[in-house]
Amino acid sequence: MKTSLHIFLVDDHPLITAGYQQSFQAIEAAGQYHFQITTAHSLDEAVHQLQRFSPQKPLALLLVDLKMPPTHDHALHSGEDLALLIKDQFPEVKIIIATTYNNNYRIHNLVQTLNPDGFLVKNDITPELIQEAIIEVIQNPPFYSKSIIRSLRKYVANDFKIDKLDRDLLYHLSLGTKTKDLTHTLPLSIAAIERRKKKLKELFAIDSNTDKDLLETAKELGFI
Amino acid sequence: MHRSITYIWLIILTFGVPIGVQVGAFHQRSAQQQQTYPQPTAAYFSEKAMRALKQKDSLKFRCYNTQAMHLAILAKDSLAIADVLWNNGAFYLNYKKYDSAYFQYQRSQHLYQKLQHHYYEAKMLYNMAYIKSKIRDYAGSEYLAYRAISKLEPLQKHKTLYHCFNLLGVIYEEMGQYTQALQCLQQAKKHLKASSLAPQYRYLAGLENNLGILYQKSNRLPKAIEYFQRALRHDRLIKKHLILYIKINDNLLYTQWLQNKDSAIQKPLEHMLFLRDSLNHQPGQITSHLHLAQYFLYHADTLQAQGHAKHALRLAQATTLNREVLRAYQLLSAIEPARASAYFKNYASVQAQLAKQERKVKNNFAQIQYETETFIAQNKKLTDQNGYLWSGIAASTVIVGLGYAINRQRQKNKKLYYENETHKAQEKIHRLQLAKMKDWNRAKNQERQRIAADLHDGILSKLFGLRLQWGFLSIPNSEVHNLHQQHLSTLQAIEKEIKAVSYDLQSEILQEHKWSFPQLLQQLITTKEDTYRLSIVLTIHPPIEWTNISSTVKMNLYRILEEALKNAYQHAQCTGVRIQLSQQHEQLFLNFQDNGVGLQSNEQQGLGLQNIKSRVQQLQGELAIHSSEAGLHLHLQIPINS
Predict the structure, then answer these.
(1) Is 0.80 surpassed by the pTM of this model?
(2) Segments forming the whole domain that contains residue A121
(3) Among residues A154, A174, A199, which one ends one of the domains?
(4) Count of domains in chain A?
(5) What is the ipTM of this complex?
(6) CA-CA distance, B158 to B191, in Å (whole number)?
(7) Residues of B in contact with A12 (CB under 8 A)
(8) Nearest chain A residue (CA) to B514
(9) Chain A contacts of B514, Cβ < 8 Å?
(10) pLDDT at res. A34
């Protein structure tokens, strides 16, 4: 008896969804699963297609790209938002993120907020890998591709010393935000920010005054 | 002819006199002539001329005096010129050329007046008064004499004062104002006694004689006799000044006779005549003859009287003493009443002639006076004009000077203003440069971001999709399959590379956004390396947080580096420059070192260094300049938030 699963593939490039489709078809060919596949190429379309699913016809697996143009009403900005929305509707849904990013901070954040069942960096993906990932996520989640695991490992190694605010601080600094403007985005005073920076420099064993060195080291260590 | 040749020889000999000859001080005029003459001067020749004048050698006198005048004019020595004119006056007076003498004296007087030499001026005035009295211009003479006196009295020059008062006495006597004449003579006597005039008794005797005559004329005969007798009391007079003695004696006898017409004075009078005859003193002879004629006339001895009168007339005519001629005619007409009309005619003609002569001389004087006055007026006018001219020149000089000063000040102000403006403009340029750099960076970043996004989102994704689908193509042949797998992994590698490129693009964007000032500096250095052909090494260590540094400091730092590089290129003849920037606490440090020749000691500090100094001052920083053969070393310390 074949298990019938509703699959939702979201990526702004039709070539990619077509590729994913082929992966699912390849798994189908093995005979264990039957996939009912829906595709969408933008967040707007995804939201629209979402209406096809219902508790009676629940969505089993979402494979979504992170970076996509936002919806017209600006309700959703990325695949992450979409994933959260779907997870809200179908708590049992398995989510696979396939992204081109390998930004440590972003990956770490995603793991914390969304905790996806599968996390793939597109560059890691090969026909074999994606088939393995799909099967693993369905049967025995999670499945993280190698780049994700490497990034997380780095991050976790230093995690005990650096809290969320430190990370945010580093992240915003790396975006080029000035210290004085950071007070608007972080719940910290300038003095507090300076103190944190000083603490981070001590932690990273940086013997300089500049943010540049701090950021470079932070990047190396996987915080950004 | 022979004589003149001798004189020429004499002159030549005089010129040949060794330099430095001491000349005796018998020239009474000035003390200055008692000095040695290193070379023939006007004074030297004037001296010689005076000597010649005393020797009554007119040719020699003229020679010397002309020479003296020439030298005085050459030396522009007014005093010497006045002296020479005086000589001339004395010379003409000797020859009774009254008008010429007067003219010379007057010119001399003007010069002394100009030189403020009051004593000599007074002497000239006296001489002029004397001449005027001689031509019977008594009013003029009186005026001049008083002018002389007014100058002499403050100086207490008793000798000359005596002469003046004596002259005045004679003038008043001639004018018949006997009381005034008496007063003047008394004054003269007072000054004579105070003076050093020697021999005093001779002058005193003369004065007393004059007083006697005065009393005689004013018909106070006993007083007159008293004075004559007093005059005769001076012993030595008879030995040394016989003529005067005779004159006084004669006057005494005549006065005694006037007092008592019966007194026996015939013998003494004839004795006097005898003495005068033996001395050949013609004026005295005439007087004696006239007195005797009067005596004989009184005693009705007409023959004797006529003889003496005719004798007097002849002598007077011979010596052209016209007034004596008149008196002789007067007497003759009294002696010979029959021929009185004829004598009277003669008398009238002589008087007319005399009057004519006098008029002529007076006319000459008037002319001299007029010419002199005109000359003075012209001079004054010229002086006035000169004055106007000079004051005009002075005024215009002042105006020009003021104008120059004002203009200079204005230019200075302008220069300062423009310097200030240049400074402002430079600052503006720098701001624009920074802004432009920012804009440029932003545009660059935008473009980079676009390229990164395109690469990442478009190309990379499409490549990935393609590769994925391609991987699902079933390739039956195992050999082809392997090749296929190989290509797929190559594609995967390409994807990775694109991603890396995209990432690098973005990360560079972040950095550039923050580090734009060092970039600006780097750009400056690259440009200067090219244009100045210098090798410049810029190190910034320890790193500087540029965002914390005010743009004024950054701007000035930029300019300072620019100036320093320019200076290194233009003056130091260097090939390499090392620049080190660092920040410690709130201070920014700049070390600038070139390998040139250093500052040249004789070279004034260049404008570039001045500019650097002023900028550092503006930033309240400090600048140390160290120059050696190894090059110029600038060390700057600037507070980052000045």
Answers:
(1) no
(2) 3-154
(3) A154
(4) 2
(5) 0.73
(6) 5
(7) 457, 461
(8) A176
(9) 176, 211-212
(10) 92
